[in-house]
Amino acid sequence: MFILHGNWIPSKNSSGKFLFWAELTRDTPDIPLRRRKGQAKTNKFPLHPFQAKFEEIKSALISLNLSDMVKFSKEKIILLLPSTEDSKGSGLPQVSSPLIYSSDKEESSWSLAPWKVDALHLPFISTIFWLSCLPQRNEQSSDGILLGDDINFWSLVSKFGLELVARERFIPSVVEKNGNLHSRWQPVITQGDDHERFDLFCESMPASCRGFFCASEHAFSPDELVLDFLTNFIDIFVRHNLLLFIKTFSFDEDITSLWLNALSREDGEIKVSSHHKEVLKKHISSWTEPARIGKEESKWQTCLRLEEPEDMDASWKISFHLQSIEDKSLLIPVSLVWKKDESVLSLLGEEFNSVEERLLLDIAQAERLFSPLGRSLEKAVPVSSLLNKNEAYNFLKEGSWLLKECGYNVIVPCSLVGTTQIGLSLSVNPLAKPSDSNKRFFGMDSLVEFDWKIALGDETLSLEELERISRIKVPLIQMRGKWVEISEDYVQKIQKFLSQTKEQKLTLGDALRLRLRGNEEGINVVEFKLHGWMEKLSSGEEEFALEEAPSKFRGELRPYQKRGFSWLSFLAQKGLGACLADDMGLGKTIQYIALLLHHKEKEKMDRPVLLVCPTSVVGNWKREIERFSPGVKFLVHHGVERHSKKRFFEEVKNKDLVITTYSLAHRDKDDLCKVGWYGTVLDEAQNIKNPHTKQARAVREIAKGYRIALTGTPIENRLTELWSIMEFLNPGYLGSYEKFRKTLAIPIERYQDEKSSKVLQMMAQPFILRRLKTDKKIIQDLPEKQETKAYCNLTKEQVTLYQAIVKEMFTVIKGAEGITRKGLILSALTKLKQVCNHPALLLHDRSETIKRSEKLNRLCEMLEEIIAEGNKALIFTQYVEMGKILQKHLQFLFAREVLFLHGGVPRKQRDSLIDKFQKEKGPPVFVLSIKAGGLGLNLTEANYVFHYDRWWNPAVENQATDRAFRIGQKRKVIVHKFICTGTIEEKIDEMLERKKGLAESIIGSGESWITELSNDKIKEIFTLRAKDALGIEEGV
User: Fold this and answer.
1) Which Pfam family, just one, is annotated for this protein (predicted)?
2) Residue 183 phi/psi, 5° resolution?
């Protein structure tokens, strides 16, 4: 595990620097001794025992997309960290995550101590580019790199700096360094939302950002650190971009020109005399004063109020007021201030004497931001300023916003907020039948009937009225009692658009995009009416008819499952893609099986449906189909013995369903593309979350007929994952990948843009159905405890090891009897169970890759969804070594602490682990050995229980499950028991199921009962069904 950190180190006399350092997992850290009295000062600061070396930090940065062409400088940094120390003077620093090292020391025993670490320094321009582009994340990269809280924090601050540059919220200024004058670009964050965000950054700064050791006594506050970082960010970023385009400004050699030229130079120094230095500082301070309005301590602020004329031809007016900061509704006209009204005197109190001067100064500075206000200064006591229509329009569009940014409050009449604009209304009706006679269903490309109208608010305009308006040359007119914004170019754009659309056709996809995203040509679509079933679809109403479960469906659909199956049927009938995104355990599989049977009974299915799923769930689909719909003819297209080309086409002819895997979707794409599928279904559809992978592209090419995606996590980390699934379901609906990122994903993820978020929600909602187990409508339909069996295949390595163990056992038990025979059988049984768990458990080879065990792979897939939903899980295993493998692998995969309790854990530490897990924000996964964790524990924070390997006594397993399913549990508990198909695990499970009623009374506490079986029975149970284990058998 590698955790990357970063610290901004400010400097009083220079530009400061950003240093990267890192923590790295060490199995046996060297615990250094601290310097004692009399020791040499060279040992003053011990090396951090978990620090990463220079080259390791460099490699991590390069793997995180930092160019290897960047110049790196090596440095040492001293960090002040909470640390332990014993009586011998040895100790350890506190690490940022228990993933690095877990200490059993109590927090009260920590004290601050300095530690030396290797650090890398890059050119600051390279650092800020990298930080600004860094995705915000808590999960680790594929290289096992996790970002520390400090890196994520400075990344957010960098993005804020980038926003300030994009919105031009910076000004040129000067600063003194070592007695010399330097030009400086500095941020403007004294007002409004920017100031609030700045304060929020300061309040939420992680402690590690301040953890650097400072030789001086001054400790930098969060405000100082953030402001210093932002100031350096703005200065270097603006200066860098100026250097790309110009070398110097072309001005005369006066002091102002020297300053302007210095703003575009890298060093920024202004070489002037002491006298000129003071003159320049004074002039620049005066010039930048409007950007600093509102910084003074006062209970009142200057307010400008725009007043509309009663008559269309009369002048507009801006009146001046004092406004209370505490009570925004309290306004005092300045005319009363000039008159020294008694009521005003009592309100202002001691501030009155300074208010008159403040008002005149504010109005004078406001005039520099909006020049028509200068007319008011022609009078001794300015009260208001008159404007013509064009000036009023400019004030609404530009002047008011600039004044607000500089600290003035501006009030405009409600009738002018979002001034009424001429727009278009659209009415859309679905056709009675699909526009393409060759299609069974509607679809995104189906044509619809539509009618455009010109709209002014709630009223409709004729083309003649629009033409008359276009001849008026003023930006604001009063029409039908409303002020209307008129742009000649805009009106002409509407006229052109209407003339073009007379001849054009509109598809359902076009209509829905217009409804939710507006017209991309910049025309305001003010009203959008959908009719018929399209209206229900767009509004997200569940007004579709509830279907009855198919007559041949063997089972019972719960009410929410019936709604889900009916919703899938509704969208499939309309030819629209649907994503069923129910919580794990709510039965997505059987809802789709019901739909498949429904189509088989009600529709004339002349072609099979293609189901694509991960290899790990192929066996589960096979069993669920056999259980709930035995009449369905299916083919498992998987494994080395799968058919291809002509034989494959013959095999699929009479099938209702063909099951294949994501990896084969790419490999066998040519064959799969040649089948005209009745529908295409993706299970665990998050497997195509990266739209650029070969399997995601292959699935999109193969897809035909209706399209359905089943997933518990339609979005895991990025919104582009949702785009990928929607592109499969309804191609083109969310636009191109790049356009989606630019217009929706980046504004939402990076800037939390509410408007974009609402648009995406409205666009996706009609096609995604997600129910949670916490929903009261759902929870009443569920049993208190659900038990399911998770079937897994074996890898080829596991099959080879398994068969070798069985062969060896049959050889040695032939002549063995009594205790010897029992010992040999139990030894073989243990080895077989270890192989089913993971080959590393048997071989002790420390190669714990997920690819070696399908069981581990399936566990990780399921945990990914559980953790993403904020749930917690217990994992029981009877092998301590397996517990260690699980803990190490899951911590690496999810970059979250995973707890492990086994018999060797001391009582005090055991209680600490339980308390940590039971906290609401504690670790999401707790691995327990079934003996140590099977009794006496209360772990009700978990609502998922996994039996990774089976203890063949139901009573023991139930006792373990009851750690979560007990008094205090407020949620449904879902239990998953892992079974490897074709192995001894499946065969013994079948025996126990047959004897379920007697199991607890006839079976002992362990597995010794197996040794009592005859050699023939042992052979039957132990022999591997290789095809079943590898998942390559065919269906019927």
Assistant:
1) SNF2-rel_dom
2) -75, 155
Per the structure block, which two tokens stand in for 940? 């009700």
Whether residue 992 has pLDDT greater than 50: yes
**DSSP strand pairing (316-324 vs 170-177):** unpaired
Structural contact between residues 224 and 215, judged by C-beta atoms closer than 8 angstroms: no
Give the Å distances, CA to CA, from 739 to 122, 329, 745, 991: 33, 43, 9, 57
CA distances from 740 to 513, 693, 719, 745, 760 (A): 12, 18, 9, 6, 10
> Is there a contact between 118 and 52 (Cβ–Cβ < 8 Å)?
yes
CB 174 within 8 A of CB 182: yes
Chain centroid to CA 549: 37
The Cα 622–Cα 633 span in angstroms is 11
Nearest CA among 454, 622, 636, 589 for reference residue 527: 454
- Taking 80 as the threshold, does the pLDDT of residue 591 lie above it? yes
Q: How far apart are CA 978 and CA 488, in angstroms?
A: 70
Q: What is the CATH number of domain 576-779?
A: 3.40.50.10810
Alpha-carbon distance 622 to 627, whole Å? Answer: 9
Instruction: Say yes or no to pLDDT of 637 above 50.
Output: yes
Q: What angle do CA 329, 331, 333 make, to 5 degrees?
A: 160
User: Mind giving me the DSSP string for 461-491?
Assistant: E-HHHHHHHHT---SEEEETTEEEE--HHHH
- Contact criterion met (CB below 8 Å) for 301 and 197: no
Name the fold adopted by 786-1027: Rossmann fold (3.40.50)
Q: Write the pLDDT tens digit of every residue in 310-343.
A: 777 788 999 999 888 778 888 889 888 888 888 8
The maximal CA–CA distance of the chain, rounded, in angstroms, is 120
Q: Which helix (H) or strand (E) holds 504?
A: none
**Among 196, 406, 201, 423, CA closest to 302:** 406
Q: Which amino acid is at 213?
A: F
Which runs of consecutive H residues, i.e. helices, occur in 502-558? 508-517, 533-539
Decide if 576-779 and 786-1027 have a common fold: yes
* Residue pLDDT, tens place only, 1000-1025: 444 444 566 677 778 888 888 888 88
Collapsing DSSP to helix, strand or coil, 948 comes out as: coil
Outline where DSSP puts E strands in 367-504: 384-387, 409-411, 420-421, 423-430, 447-456, 459-461, 476-479, 482-485
Band of pLDDT at residue 434, cut at 50, 70 and 90:
low
Highest mean pLDDT pick, 101-115, 446-460, 619-633: 619-633
The H or E element spanning position 170 is strand 170-177
Indicate the pTM of the whole model.
0.69
Residue with the larger pLDDT of the pair 1007 and 251: 1007
Asked if 695 and 688 count as a contact pair (C-beta separation under 8 A), the reply is yes
Domain ranges of the chain: 2-237, 300-416, 420-539, 576-779, 786-1027
Q: Which residues partner with 420 through β-bridges?
A: 484
Phi, psi of 2 (to 5 degrees): -130, 120
Its sign, for the CA torsion 644, 650, 653, 655, is: negative
Burial class (CB in 10 A: 0-12, 13-18, 19+), 308: middle
Cα torsion 238, 241, 245, 246: sign: positive
Q: 3-state SS of 732-780?
A: CCCCCHHHHHHHHHHHHHHHCCHHHHHHHHHHHHHHEECCCCCCHHHHC
Name beta bridge partners: 769: 580
With tokens 């360094």, the residue in question is 177
DSSP 788-825: EEEEE---HHHHHHHHHHHHHHHHHHSS--HHHHHHHH
Eight-state DSSP code of residue 30: -
Structure-token match 């397996």, residue found: 882
CA separation for the pair 358, 378 (Å, rounded):
17
- Bridge-based pairing of strands 423-430 and 506-507 is unpaired
* 648-683 pLDDT, tens digit each: 999 898 899 999 999 999 999 999 999 999 999 999
Enclosing H/E stretch for 320:
strand 316-324
